[in-house]
Amino acid sequence: MNISHQYIVKLASEAFWSFVFKNSFKEAGFVITIEDIPESLWSREILLKMLSKDLYPVELSQDLIDTLYYDVAETIIDHNNREENIIGIVYQEDFKFCKDPNFAFKNLIDKQFTDSDQKSNYYLQLKGKYLNEGELILRTPLPSGILLKSRPTTSSMPYIPNTLKALGFQKQLVLQITDILPLPANKYGYNYFITGLFYIPTIQDHSLVWLKLIPNATTILNCFRIICYEDGSFCEGNILPKSPTNKKNLINKMLSFFY
Q: What global pTM score does this model have?
């Protein structure tokens, strides 16, 4: 039986990101050899459990299991050495809702509603070059990305996606692109999947949950700057408190008459 490279990458991505979700990037460590990979991240036992859930109900030879075990380990090591995310497979069935139709982490989304653009007590002030385009797609515990209908004109300009479909609310997220993947024809009209590192403005109370939902992210509590290497321009953001609403100002003025 021949196992495709795509399937090997699938196993590697699911094993690695599932470990990160349960633990952390730090505990995954910097792996140079197979001995550096934590056993709770990748082992023959984990491989057999993953195979039993997939399309391999037949009994596999020990040689094939050993080959798969080492191929997946090498994939994890290779991506780690090149400092690249293991993206895995982007499934078309996730495009309708910009997440798995049976998304298992809705509880995490619900926790973040109070950190939405509408509900939070701060806003992100942006300067520089960026594009408001595409739809956020959640792939928890795998890396998130943005679905685009047109090919990015540049790979260095940050993108800010629409998040309403994926999260149920709007949240400004800024993506620094590292990967552009063409997509097969689909009824939703998405032609490209882009991913990389998301910058998420937030407060401390919401930080860890955002990193669970979107593992290829860094949370921003104050400010950030992204350099566009093609022309040396930049995009920078600062988190500022929202001004009191007109309604609040009116109430304060009314109360002032009594004091």
A: 0.89
